[in-house]
Amino acid sequence: MKHQRYFDPSDSPLREVSQIATLIGDLDRRVRILECDAVIEEQRARVFDPRDPAYPVLARSLVARRENIMNTITALERRLADHPDQAELVRLMAMANNS
Q1: Does some domain include residue 22?
Q2: Is 99 inside any structural domain?
Q3: Are the C-beta atoms of residues 36 and 62 closer than 8 Å to each other?
Q4: What is the domain range of residue 53?
């Protein structure tokens, strides 16, 4: 049974940092999935140049989604930079939980 972490209401910045860090991890995983899917679609169509009119529409939309998610990750990382102490604590807690 996995125990849920308890955050004191006074630890609101810590909770926000934890949520942002988790979201960044999830979004990073999605970026990697989209990259793989775009490459697979390019290989299927045998067209690798996005400027080529025959470039697959699906690959084009996957790349656009990936770019949007990467922009979101960048914005979230800027928010994490506003809380460097809490971000380090969350990183250490995550490392301890993965051991």
Answers
A1: yes
A2: no
A3: no
A4: 14-92
Nearest to 89 by CA among 27, 16, 9, 1: 16
Supply 81's token pair: 């930079």
Which residue from 25, 33, 83 is spatially nearest to 62, judged by alpha carbons? 33
Token couple for 34: 């989209």
Q: Quick check: is 73 in a domain? A: yes
Please tell me the pTM assigned to this model.
0.74
User: What are the angstrom distances between the C-alpha of 54 and each of 25, 43, 95?
Assistant: 34, 13, 46
Q: Find tokens 């990697």 and name the residue.
A: 32
Q: What tens-digit pLDDT sequence spans the chain (99 residues)?
A: 566 665 555 567 778 888 888 899 999 999 999 999 999 999 999 999 999 999 999 999 999 999 999 999 999 999 888 877 776 767 666 666 665
Residue 5 lies in a domain: no
Count of domains forming the chain: 1
Of 77, 86, 70, 60, which is closest to residue 31 (Cα–Cα)?
70
